[in-house]
What we know:
The protein is 46% helix and 16% strand. Keywords: Lyase, Metal-binding.
Amino acid sequence: MSRFAEALASRTQIWGGWVVAPTIIGPEEFAAAGYHYVGFDVQHGYLDDADVAMLLRRTEHLPIATAVRLPSADPAPIGRVLDAGADAVIVAMVENPDQAARAVAAARYAPAGVRSFGPLRASLGHDPAALESRVSVFVMIETARGLAALDEICAVPGLAGLYVGPADLAISMGFAPADAWTHPEVRAATARIRKTITAAGLVAGIHAGSGKLGNLFAQEGFRMITLASESQALRRGAADHLSDAIGETRRATERGGYN
């Protein structure tokens, strides 16, 4: 069992950070803050295979699970990140059960799948069954077509769960990205997705984008919730520090200077 599966087995919710660019300390800071997993974004981020392999190696001894988001169910990229030690893969833009089945197959060796054998980390061992068992496969529901095929996708054997992309879902439904968290139709679709995933016995995940939205989605029953990327966390921390500094300077000026 991987750290990802262990976290899900021991908690109602697991909270995630997100990394979109090469970083030395990002995963370490998420781990130190108490996050349960960190996602590495190969779909929208500025990460290549070498970057992901380095980041996965750096997290090997950290108390945090790892997931990698990939743009498709292409078995070669999925196999490479799993060979490098990813605990989970999140496959984007899945719209039908065939795509979901291909994502699962990419994480399984023959005869159940099409994954090629080639572990890169000695610590993972060389037992195909053990290597398979530590991998959690998630597919993303983030389009109207995916929403229409939700029941069929949830029925695909081998999935650990489904992960909602609210912004793309809103766009696909004809709304603006900002409507993802406020428009009644999008919110109703998100709630329906969560209920269907849970009823199928799978893990319901979502990309929240903030702590407040993460709390909202946790109350609604989502279990795997990504809160912020390293760039968002840096921006918020930097803004808070600047605000504190400006505030202290103003208060000192109003008092006539520092003593």
